[in-house]
Design a protein that fits this description.
- The chain has about 375 residues and is an alpha+beta fold.
- The chain has 14 helices and seven strands.
- The chain has a four-stranded antiparallel sheet, with helices on one face.
- A hairpin with a 6-residue loop joins strand 6 and strand 7.
- The relative contact order is 0.07.
């Protein structure tokens, strides 16, 4: 018999189930008897033309019951053709998903998602959405794995799964098999950071760069731990040179986070000199785009940073590793003075981590410095 159901998954054995409307109050796994974890959406299933059909309706059971009633009425009155779902093209799906993303995610995430869909398009277009298979998407993942690392591939997978989940909610796809796509195993986080000598070499080469902003951008990264996009969006109003702090806001998934970062004396002097010699527009970006002074420099701009790395003889080092360098050197200077817990809490605030676990990745580095500090410690006997 046709009916309304929810999808459930057993937290013990991982088996998926269709949970009928009458069993939703007490959903249990038929295999191991554990209570199932139910999804938010209701589905309907029915038979026509000798086939079985499933459709995602939404989070309200009244809508599901109404949708099933309409389907059954169309079948009873020989109007089953009205139950046929409209098919959608890749172009339609992408347009709707990006329109949704524009109001729900940060500009950085939106940029990454657009990039993912550009790459994916070559594997799907001009297929109808209902013709897209898990194998098609898996082929895309396999090919991207040959070019970029697991972390980047997993960013692609996050975007694709989110898109198909939303398409299922909007009833634009049936039987969402893309939810079965699994993420790749990522290696432990990078621990690449610069030594004092490497920092001096890099900054020296950045000064020689054709991009006059290169030196100041890298110097800011080394002294604040800010990400590249956050540095490029800094404005004159974010700097309080009298108090010696940077007050800015960084983008987060759910809610932006305000940061107050004390400036080291060197950065404070360099920023003051930079602002005195760089004419600012009304928007006040301190690193404006060379093409449009009213806008900030874009993330993909050629800062001259990579060439500076080559000239300095520094290999396997990304711009984001400057953030790790800041964290490492900060703990080296501050951790021994104020203790592990205090140093990590302060570092968490400066880096803008909402989850303390993100900052804990640096705890072993601090342990190393504390051990080194103890090596020279010795209690000499008063009797010796």
């Amino acid at each position: 018999m046709p009916g309304v159901y929810k999808k459930g998954k057993c937290p013990s054995c991982g088996k998926s189930h269709k949970v009928s409307e009458k069993d939703i109050k007490d959903p249990t796994c038929k295999k191991c008897g554990e209570e199932l974890t139910l999804g938010k959406n209701y589905y309907i299933w029915y038979s026509q033309f000798g086939e079985k059909f499933d459709r995602c309706i939404g989070p309200q059971i009244k809508q599901a019951r109404l949708a099933l009633s309409k389907v059954e009425l169309n079948i009873a009155e020989n109007r089953a053709n009205l139950n046929k779902r409209k098919t959608y093209s890749w172009k339609d799906a992408r347009k709707k998903f990006i329109s949704f993303a524009e109001t729900t995610v940060s500009s950085q995430t939106l940029y990454l998602w657009n990039r993912t869909l550009d790459l994916l398009e070559g594997y799907l277009d001009p297929k109808c959405l209902d013709d897209v298979t898990l194998s098609d998407v898996q082929s895309f993942v396999t090919e991207r794995s040959k070019v970029v690392g697991p972390s980047t591939v997993n960013d692609h997978i996050t975007c694709i799964k989110r898109m198909w989940n939303m398409l299922e909610r909007w009833d634009m796809v049936e039987n969402n098999k893309i939810r079965l796509l699994e993420k790749l195993t990522e290696p432990d986080g990078r621990e690449r950071y610069l030594t004092d000598k490497e920092i001096d070499k890099l900054l020296s080469e950045c000064k020689k760069s054709q991009n006059k902003m290169c030196y100041m951008i890298v110097l800011t990264a080394l002294h604040t731990g800010l990400r590249k996009s956050d540095i490029l969006n800094l404005k004159r109003s974010h700097f309080d040179l009298e108090q010696g702090v940077i007050r800015t806001e960084i983008k987060k998934k759910k809610k932006n986070k305000k940061l107050t970062i004390p400036m080291a004396e060197r950065l404070r002097k360099e920023i003051r000199a930079h602002l005195e010699t760089t004419p600012l527009t009304i928007t006040g970006y301190i690193f404006p785009s060379p093409r449009d002074k009213m806008k900030p420099m874009v993330r993909s701009a050629d800062l001259g940073y990579k060439d500076a790395l080559k000239r300095a003889g520094i290999q396997d080092f990304t711009f984001h590793d400057l953030r790790h360098t800041f964290a490492t050197l900060f703990l080296k200077e501050i951790g021994v003075k104020f203790g592990k817990d205090t140093a990590l809490r302060v570092l968490q605030e400066i880096l803008g981590h909402t989850n303390p676990k993100m900052t804990q990745r640096y705890a072993h580095i601090l342990n190393k410095y504390l051990t080194e500090a103890m090596e020279g410690f010795e209690i000499k006997s008063l009797n010796s």
